[in-house]
């Protein structure tokens, strides 16, 4: 059957016959004033476009898409080579001791300059500082909301590290195609997409996502037990099912299967319990997703609880946990978490200042409401 050059329209935008990034870019010029169903609150009112910006976080998750039948279940330990200094750097990062964590990351980089792990850890340390710095209290919820903004020095450093990770991993793949290097390549591109999503940059997120998808699927093909790859797969399945209206259009453009929220949560659970690098981030994203989209605050609290138990001085995790406790109506517990966040140390000054400010704002709001 002959397909016409233009096979349909979406909001007066012609859909080209050939699916390409240009076609996606045309689609992405939709009217941002039209807030989708998922962004409405229980009273039928709309959240502003900051939440709509989450649409474009989904694009990097698209990069990691695969149907449940394609991805095998985790059955054995993976073969990641994570030295003790790397594990200690990750622990220090989540304890707010960012300078010590970066020092260890630099040590790893010096010892193995051609290996991506040290650079990935350094990028993750910087990411949490960036996330914290740009966090806000909007819609009675504390989060780093997507919005357009110019690049700053932290952004430039984060993108440079993300590129270093993916390029080193791809160079390793040329020498020997291993699941480990495929994972690092995918995580490098996902790191780039994570920051660009926060800056509301639509097409660059999509490009990074396509590369991440290629590498993470190859990783699982080589080693089905590489649980860290399930972070991206879980986010894809969850968000495509949650944002069902957009998912149908994206599937039309990119030929990607539909998502399954329950499967996505199962995959996030795999990453949060069996992952060696992404365990904490998977749990954090699971708690945020259940809070922001499902409003399933009880399950969100269950997901967030281990974060605070294992990292009791992490102001970011304390703010998340306090926010969820407040939504559950547990005001005393929420106040305790916010007071702890206000007192929590964090070596990076901008993050500490922002976190303490947000904690005091939340406490003031609770006082006014009573």
Would you write up a description of this structure?
This protein has helices at 21-27, 49-52, 54-62, 84-94, 98-111, 117-133, 153-175, 179-198, 202-222, 230-242, 244-254, 261-274, 279-294, 297-310, 315-327, 331-343, 349-369; strands at residues 6-10, 13-16, 136-138, 141-143. The chain is mainly alpha-helical. It folds into two domains: 1-31, no CATH class; 47-290, Serine Threonine Protein Phosphatase 5, Tetratricopeptide repeat (Alpha Horseshoe), CATH 1.25.40. The strands form two sheets. The chain has a two-stranded antiparallel ribbon. It has a two-stranded antiparallel ribbon with strand order 3-4. α10 (230-242) packs parallel to α13. The protein is globular. Residues 1-56 and 58-76 have low confidence and may be disordered.
Highlighted features:
Serine Threonine Protein Phosphatase 5, Tetratricopeptide repeat, about 5% strand, about 375 residues, 2 domains, mainly alpha, two-stranded antiparallel ribbon
The structure class reads mainly alpha
**SSE topology string:** EEHHHHHHEEHHHHHHHHHHH
Query: Please, what is the average pLDDT?
Result: 79
Proportion of strand residues: under 5%
Shape: globular
CATH class value of the largest domain = Mainly Alpha
How would a textbook summarize the main sheet?
2 strands, antiparallel
Walk across the major sheet and give the strand order. 1-2
| Helical residue percent band | 55-70%
CATH architecture verdict of the largest domain: Alpha Horseshoe
